Amino acid sequence: MSLYTITGAQLAFGHVALLDHADFSLEAGERVGLIGRNGAGKSSLLKIVADLTKPDDGLVTRQQNLTTVYVPQEPEFDTDDTVFEAVAAGLAHARSLLDEYDVVANQLADEPEGAEHDALMDRMNTLQSSLDSVDAWNWSTRVATTLQQIGLNGEARVGSLSGGMQKRVALARALVVQPDVLLLDEPTNHLDFEGIRWLEDLLVSLRAGLFFITHDRAFLDRVATRIVDLDRGRLLSYPGNFSAYQTRKAQQLEIEQVEAAKFDKLLAQEEVWIRKGVEARRTRSVGRIARLVEMRNQRAERRNLQGNVRLDVGQGEKSGKIVAELTDVTKRYGSRTVVDNFTVTVMRGDKIGFVGPNGAGKTTLLKMILAELAPDEGTVRVGTNLQVAYFDQMRAQLDLEKSLADTISPGSEWVEVNGQKKHVMSYLGDFLFAPERARSPVKSLSGGERNRLLLARLFARPANVLVLDEPTNDLDIPTLELLEELLTEYDGTVLLVSHDRAFLDNVATSVIASEGGGKWREYVGGFTDWQIQRDRSQQMALDAQKEANKDAGKDAAAAKDPAARNTQRAAKLSFKEQRELEALPPKIAALEAEQKTIGAQLEDGSVFAKDPQEGTRLTERYAAIDEELLVALERWDELENRRK
């Protein structure tokens, strides 16, 4: 039986039907990724599943005692709370039951036998059952365990944390509830690459059902076992990850276009027939007329695929061949070195991605390349004829009170792109803004729409250097793919900060990565190329260190009596413990191999479509192996230390 089912749901805002007789179900252990265009109604659907809102019509059924927890895009906290208090807030209901239990227990102690005493006993029994069902007795231990699993300091103040760490606190607050279904709206926002990888590992190992919204294609590929596409009010389901969805979606749209063309051709023929002369009207059949009326209604109700954004960047004059040259530059803030002795040359046409943890100094390095910030040491030489256009992730360039038209073309009704004049209404239409919205204030737009408006403003101005700081936030996948295509074909220079791994792979020709401690290094290729080269370098360094330690160990061993050392080791472990120690490495290897095999099956997602029960079993086994591995590794470490 499904954990949650929606049948024939309808939801509308104004004249737009966000849900149009939509159906959806969620099975135990599934990880469902919800995608769709900006404004399609994804967040509204998530809130319906979270029971925070209701559809206008339709049937919603959920398993009895189903626990769902919703984590919004921008979680809210009391900034004065400690992390422990913020996470414990997820168990507010359980704690209130416990407080009431204590009050009833105290009242019982003072109440003599009688009707009031019996009523208090009944209430206490009810409370005890409720407390048992939500495991409220050990709420403090549950919070502490969750904090340890997620790597949070319970004593830290929430207000002192970065956006990425606050996102972790919000997830901890949700997970401490031990929900049956976890609902996440854009969970990768504010997370850097390490944070996203950590979140992927966490979600893949969860036993709970997962329903989440994201535009991060790499995240969808790793986490989702099924994709649900909210398309023109309907929910279309595709088993497997995002790559599998792309193939099937393309095939479906092709079939849809062919069927629509056949329908339109037949309708046109029938319209010609109905308008024939008197002779045709005498012989026409009532059934045929009725079918024509029905076809007209069907055509009127058809919701065509929403058009895509039409992007065209204003090309400035060519810059000099060298855009910027940094030689041995260093930048410090107090005692912290953000950039340490870094050298790089940026050439015209380069498309460079900047990667590193939040706060590593990506923006600082960008400003030095553009000569907006002077280094403490070293030299910066900037090329000639630079026309720089900025895309700001905080959207600070947008005046919220201005209209869309004034934002794009203040004081004029025309925009000039690559020498061609275009009316501002038509230009906004290229970015999917209807004419009636052109006079609306910027503050009325959603996050994704504001990003689209910022792109429209950015591309309306001639530039030969584009600086894009997190341009992918809140953009839907079709717009992302179009932006990738535009930047790939762009003749100028692109300096790009993004945590979207697929976007970096598809756009960047090289990556400048933070190596920690203010060290930066340039790698050829995109994000995946950087990962491969970085991992290879780290492995080589690790192998060299192991070899050095091995040689040092041999030298130390030669100075001791081997026979005496072996006798000492044997004395520290019993025969049974020695056998146990020898058996642990193959046991650990077998568990890791089993977990890897199960992980591959879960990531593929087809098992949930073929056999949901087997999918649930594999999910539970994956989590159980984690516990077995922890026990085995701790025992191996204990025995190994004792025999040394």
From the 3D structure, determine the CATH topology of the largest domain. Answer: Rossmann fold
Distance between the termini: 54 Å
| Bulk shape | globular
Assign a percent range to the helix content: 40-55%
Query: Major sheet: order of its strands?
Result: 5-6-7-3-8-9
Low-confidence stretches: 564-571
β-strand amount:
15-25%
For this entry, give a set of tags.
644 residues, alpha/beta, Rossmann fold, 5 domains, six-stranded mixed beta sheet, 22 helices, 20 strands, 20% strand, globular
Walk me through this protein's architecture.
There is one protein chain. Helices cover 49% and strands 20% of the residues. Mean pLDDT is 81; it is low at 564-571. With 644 residues, the protein is of the alpha/beta class. The protein folds into five domains: 1-67 and 179-240, 3-Layer(aba) Sandwich (Rossmann fold); 77-178, Rossmann fold; 246-301, no CATH class; 322-532, P-loop containing nucleotide triphosphate hydrolases (Rossmann fold, 3-Layer(aba) Sandwich); 560-643, Helix Hairpins (Orthogonal Bundle), CATH 1.10.287.380.
Describe the structure concisely.
By secondary structure, this protein is of the alpha/beta class. It folds into 5 domains: 1-67 and 179-240, 3-Layer(aba) Sandwich (Rossmann fold), CATH 3.40.50.300; 77-178, Rossmann fold (3-Layer(aba) Sandwich), CATH 3.40.50.300; 246-301, no CATH class; 322-532, Rossmann fold; 560-643, Helix Hairpins (Orthogonal Bundle), CATH 1.10.287.
How is the topology of this model organized?
Elements: E1 4-13, E2 16-26, E3 31-36, H1 42-49, E4 57-62, E5 68-71, H2 83-88, H3 92-110, H4 115-133, H5 139-150, H6 163-175, E6 181-185, H7 193-204, E7 209-213, H8 217-223, E8 226-231, E9 234-239, H9 242-274, H10 278-283, H11 286-301, E10 322-333, E11 336-347, E12 351-355, H12 362-369, E13 377-382, E14 388-391, H13 404-408, E15 414-417, E16 420-423, H14 424-430, H15 447-459, E17 465-469, H16 477-489, E18 493-497, H17 501-507, E19 510-516, E20 519-524, H18 527-558, H19 562-572, H20 575-604, H21 606-610, H22 612-643
Parallel strand pairs: 3-7, 3-8, 5-6, 6-7, 12-18, 12-19, 14-17, 17-18
Antiparallel strand pairs: 1-2, 1-4, 8-9, 10-11, 10-13, 15-16, 19-20
Helix pairs in contact: 3-4, 5-6, 9-11, 20-22
